[in-house]
Every structure is written in C-alpha cells, then in structure tokens.
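Dear Dr. L.,

I hope this message finds you well. Following up on our conversation about the binding site, I have prepared a predicted three-dimensional model of the protein together with flavin-adenine dinucleotide. For your records, I am including the exact sequence and ligand specification that went into the calculation, followed by the structure tokens. Please feel free to forward this to your student if that is useful.
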Amino acid sequence: MSTHHTALIIGGGPAGSAAAHTLASHGIDTALIDKAVFPRDKLCGGLLTLRSKKIYSRIFAVPWDPVIDFTAHGVKFFHRERLLNEVSNASELFFTRRLDFDHFLLNQAIAQGTRHYQGETVISLDLAGKTGRLRSGAEFTFDTLIGADGVNSLVAKTLFGKAFDHDRIAFALEMEVDRAQCAVPIDDPEIIFGLARWGYGWVFPKKDTLTVGIGGLHAKNPELKKVFHEFLTARFGGIPEGKIKGHHLPFGDYRKTPGRGHVLLCGDAAGLVEPITGEGIAFAMQSGLYAAQAIIEAAAGGGDALPRYQARYREITRDFDHANRLRTLVFPRTSERLFLKALPKSSTLPRKHLELMADKLQYGDYFRYLMFKALKALAKRALFLK
Ligand SMILES: Cc1cc2nc3c(=O)[nH]c(=O)nc-3n(C[C@H](O)[C@H](O)[C@H](O)COP(=O)(O)OP(=O)(O)OC[C@H]3O[C@@H](n4cnc5c(N)ncnc54)[C@H](O)[C@@H]3O)c2cc1C
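The resulting structure of the complex is given below.
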C-alpha cells in the first residue's frame, strides 16, 4: 500500500464509509483499511429508521432503495408470547442486509476517490509517530486517523487501554430464520419484552428471512443463550435451522471525548449505540460525517479537528444523555412493571416511541412526556392506596 495519506480510516462499516465519502468528495487524500473483503456481513437486525434515512441522504448521493430488503409501517409489542400493543400506519421502518448495505456505502466512498485496502488487518499503531502496521507487514503513515473499527476498536484500545468494559455494555444473540420455518406471515417488526433484562428481543422481517435476536446489558443477562433457546422453541416449535451468533454493542457507554490529538473515534468505536433501542447505524453515519467535516474545516482554517468534532458529536450525545436517563425509567424491575402495564392501555406511548425513532420527536420532549406519565401513574397508585 502507498505509505502516506492525509486522512486514514480504519473500518469500512457505516461510520468509516460516511467519513471516507465526505472527505474524498472534498478532495482530501483519503484511504480506508478494512480487515474484511466486501461484501462482508455484520451481525445486525438491519433496522433503518427515518432518522437513518435523513442522515444517509445528507452524506450519500445515490438513493438507498437498491439495498432496502423490506419496508414496514407498523410494530407489534409483546411481553413474551402475549401481544401488548400494536401500531399500524406509522412512519416507515426499513430493513436491510448489512452484507449489501455496507458494500453499497463503501462503493460510493470509493467512487468519490477513497483509496481502499480490503482484507488488511491493522495490528498495531504508534499514534505519537502517526504510523501503523498491517498483518501483511506493510506500514502506513497519516496526518489524521479515524477509528471506525467497531466495538472491539484497536484504535480505542491504543488510545485508552481498552475499547469497552464488557460489564457496562450489551451483548446480543441473533440468527436468520428462513420464512418457510414460520407458520404465520410476519409483516411488521416485533419487539419482545420480558426476555432480556435491560434489553429486549426482536423479530425483524426481511424479504426471505426473519432476523430473530435478543440483547441486553451483559452483566444483567448471564443466561442469555438459555433464554434465547427457550424463546425460539416457544416461537417456532423448536430451534430453527441456522447459526446463532453473538456480538457486543456499546449500548449507552459512549466516550465523553471521542479521540485524542489527531485521532478521532466514530460509530461503535466511540460507543454511539442508542441506550434504549440499540440503534447504531444512524449514529455511525452521523459521527463519520461530523468527523470528516471537522477534518475539512481544520484543513481549511488551521487548528485541530478534535475540538471541532467534539462540538458536533455533542449533538448526538446530548440525546444519548436523555436516553440514558429514560432507560432508568423503563428497564429496572419496578418501573418495567409499570411500563408494561401502561403499554397495552396507551395508544400514544408506542406511537411516541416510533416518532422518536423517526426523528419526529426530540429526546427531551419524549423524556418529559414519559416523566409525566410515570408521575401520573404513581399519583393514581398513591390515591388508590389511601
Ligand atoms: C445483534 C445486533 C443487532 C443490531 N441491530 C441493529 C439494528 O437493527 N439497527 C441499527 O441501527 N443498529 C443495530 N446494531 C448496531 C449496529 O450494528 C452498529 O452500531 C453499527 O454496525 C456500527 O457501525 P460502525 O461503522 O461503527 O462499525 P462496524 O459496522 O462494526 O464496522 C467496523 C469495521 O471495522 C473493521 N475492522 C475492525 N477492526 C479492524 C482492524 N484491526 N483492521 C482493519 N479493519 C478492522 C471490521 O471488519 C468492520 O468492517 C446491532 C448490533 C448488534 C450486535
């Protein structure tokens, strides 16, 4: 590989491709390294919200329709096997296969002039010396480095000693189930409470398959595999054919400072997974865009990219702070009971949540709405106990 690039990106997921596309289209000498050769898969439900669509459209010029596998307009909420509530005629929810989606994004970044090195694993970094080494033995140098290398980020490990504390983040299990193995047609995504602690289960429809998963805070779910097996058996009459895979998600544990010096972290490497829903693709693309904009601005105006990036990054993490507070209203056992009691009776609660995911409702407003609901429920209980 050529030895020096102005901007070097490690990781070709949504964060890395968003950054590469933005930088290359502004004429910055940009290279991206990924250990995989694309198309490559990534364990993921593949749910893309309207928020994702908006962010995608800010970055990429080609409409994403070719890689949308399925579109839904409603959601069903369950407590284990019991249907609690359903919403129809809601904002669109899109489903993609990451094998296709990530390849599509990377190809657009390449078309803008990004140099790409696929099938190359970065094994060590000397950040002060602005150099790195690949498993093949080749070395590279850079002016600015973007770590978009996912939840087990080597860049974050090199900066901070470790990527994440596994006890503070989530773990999820997932499998693709052939639609033929399901007796009833499934057209709306399903969210299942009561399976994972500080998390949930999901059945997401794709054209030919259903993506079935379960995830929650790692420390609170020591028996996740057993619970998933029980759920699959109850749902499909046995464990469907296919491979169950597991992966960590940095759910709620974002980096307060997303980098150091001339190194910026984006997407999962920075911990940008929404603390309640587990949505990460939108924030990966958004942070990739913001990191690239900060580098472009610093190149034009002088100074460092990191403070510029940090100011934009705060837009994302301000919402994560609201969501982190919200989840202490939703996930602990007592409040979860109240939430599950309120859900079947309320027509507004699930709709509001979908509006939040579609970026039609702001986190602060949703937080105030839920606080009001919780206080109302507590006041009712207090009156009843009198
Ligand atoms: C089970 C599960 C379900 C999920 N479902 C959803 C969902 O439905 N919707 C949603 O929005 N989010 C979902 N997420 C979260 C989402 O998958 C992530 O937030 C998103 O993939 C983050 O993108 P990224 O670009 O930061 O990292 P990634 O997509 O993880 O990309 C990182 C890239 O870096 C490369 N890399 C890593 N280390 C090196 C190295 N040393 N050298 C070279 N290359 C390297 C990898 O090969 C990879 O291509 C889910 C996550 C899990 C685990």
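In brief: Residues 10-16, 33-36, 42-47, 121-122, 148-150, 154, 172, 174, 213, 215, 247, 249, 267-269, 273, 278-282, 284 surround flavin-adenine dinucleotide (CB under 6 Å).

With kind regards,
A. P.
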